[in-house]
Amino acid sequence: MNTFEQYESEVRGYCRNFPAIFSSAKGAWMTDADGRRYLDFFCGAGVLNYGHNPDRIKQALLGYLMRDGITHTLDMYSEAKERFIDQFNEVILKPRGLHYKFQFPGPTGTNAVEAALKLARKVTGREQVVGFTNAFHGMTLGALAVTGNGFKRAGAGVPLSHTASLPFDGFMGPESDTLDYFEMMLNDDGSGLDLPAAVIIETVQAEGGVNVASVAWLQRLREITARHGIVLIVDDIQVGCGRTGKFFSFEEAGIVPDIVTLSKSLSGYGLPLALVLIKPELDQWAPGEHNGTFRGHCPAFVTATAALSLWKDDQLERAVFAKQAIIEKRLAHIATIAGAEATVRGRGMIQGIEFADPSLAGKVSAACFERGLIVETAGIDDQVLKLLPSLTIEDSELKLGLDIIEDSVRALVKAEPRELRSAA
User: Fold this and answer.
1) What Enzyme Commission number(s) apply to this enzyme (predicted)?
2) Are the C-beta atoms of residues 204 and 210 closer than 8 Å to each other?
């Protein structure tokens, strides 16, 4: 029995699927204690959009630490925070015509979601929040209440209340617009749905199985919420920071949320950092009304500011869309190997392949790990193989990982060896 099995809680999860002790990492690669290298298509569940130990971000951090830059300030002012706010405004918000106030709620995504829900209820004076089927917003009680996964919800141990769950885009089939149902409920006093304080939405449900909301659906949702005075919260924690190509996942739809939550890749280096972007008229907090110890994590401000240099032009965005084309073409080919009922979906560099046999995704993930590739599963039955390679991965590395996925699928479905490696 090793140290982890002897002393660490049984709640641990990812280590059971990827049983290695990792010691170092660089770019798209992780190395374990025995010196074996693994290509990373997981990236810390989307935390490492820019890969492991990116040089420009690492050097900024090391320089700050070596000059004894202050590391912790709660919500007191610091140069590191000021520089991040200024750069985020100049590089991200102003070019997109966006104007938000910044709230640093605590170190993780679920902290950002809790703050967003709490503020929406305070501002509107209403209690109900609408979430969606298969959504995932975090593991604290408020975030769990708007999460769809029954297994995660059951872990709360108490009733999860003051929320309603509605069908996500496509949940009722491709021919059904689920917002028809939402609008009917809002317009009928007999529906039993109280006017919500907020709607919280992921434009791409990552943990839920790489479920993609269409542009038209998102635009209609924005119109409905605006017309009824409902706060629209976009949870961009996993699919923001360039994961779908543009910095914010909602940009393609041309909508402006009332509140946006960010975390994961925001720091650019795996350091905990969360941010709530709030329309100025909604920033009605009293001083100290919502707080948290680690909302002044200056090393994370430093790395996040350095990461913003990657967004001063459109090179990274264009690279993501180019890699998206490679992934989509190759996954479509792999789907034909797995059978007609395997489907591919995603946006940018979050892509998934869903198998008709729900157990196949987990088997493919395990087979990939044996071949030196880390790739996770998603969906209510873990039926989707979910690809989250770094945005900066080299094309050759990307194609190598896709080769490993294809080889793994072929081995499991006993298909003939492929004739054309890296057809894309």
Assistant:
1) 2.6.1.76
2) yes
d(CA 366, CA 371): 9
3-class SS letters over the chain: CCHHHHHCCCCCCHHHHCCCCEEEEEECEEEECCCCEEEECCHHHHCCCCCECCHHHHHHHHHHHHCCCCCECCCCCCHHHHHHHHHHHHHHHHHHCCCCEEECCCCCHHHHHHHHHHHHHHHHCCCCEEEECCCCCCCCHHHHHCCCCHHHHHCCCCCCCCEEEECCCCCCCCCCCHHHHHHHHHHCCCCCCCCCCEEEECCEECCCCCEECCHHHHHHHHHHHHHCCCEEEEECCCCCCCCCCCCCCCHHHCCCCCEEEECHHHCCCCCCCCEEEECHHHCCCCCCCCCCCCCCEHHHHHHHHHHHHHHCCCHHHHHHHHHHHHHHHHHHHHHHHHCCCCEEEEECCEEEEECCCCCHHHHHHHHHHHCCEECEEECCCCCEEEECCCCCCCHHHHHHHHHHHHHHHHHHHCCCCCCCCCCC
Q: In terms of Cα–Cα distance, which of 157, 179, 161 is closest to 170?
A: 179
Walk me through the domains of the chain, giving residue ranges and CATH numbers.
Answer: 3-54+314-413 (3.90.1150.10), 58-311 (3.40.640.10)
For all residues of the chain together, what is the average pLDDT?
A: 95
List, in order, residues 6 or more apart from 315 with CB less than 8 Å away: none
Closest residue by Cα to residue 347 from 132, 110, 89, 169: 169
Helix axes 315-338, 395-413, angle to 10 degrees: 10
Sheet holding 350-354, edge to edge: 343-347, 350-354, 384-387, 376-378
Residues 6+ apart with CB under 8 A from 292: 105, 106, 107, 111
Letter for the amino acid at 389?
Answer: P
Copy the structure tokens of residue 352. Answer: 């998934």
Token pair for 312? 């001063």
Cα 147 to chain centroid distance, Å, stands at: 14
Judged against a pLDDT cut of 80, whether residue 423 lies above it is answered with no
Percent with pLDDT over 90 in the chain = 92
User: Please, which residues have CB within 8 angstroms of residue 126's CB and are 6 or more apart in sequence?
Assistant: 194, 195, 196, 197
Structure confidence by residue, pLDDT tens digits, 392-416:
999 999 999 999 999 999 999 876 5
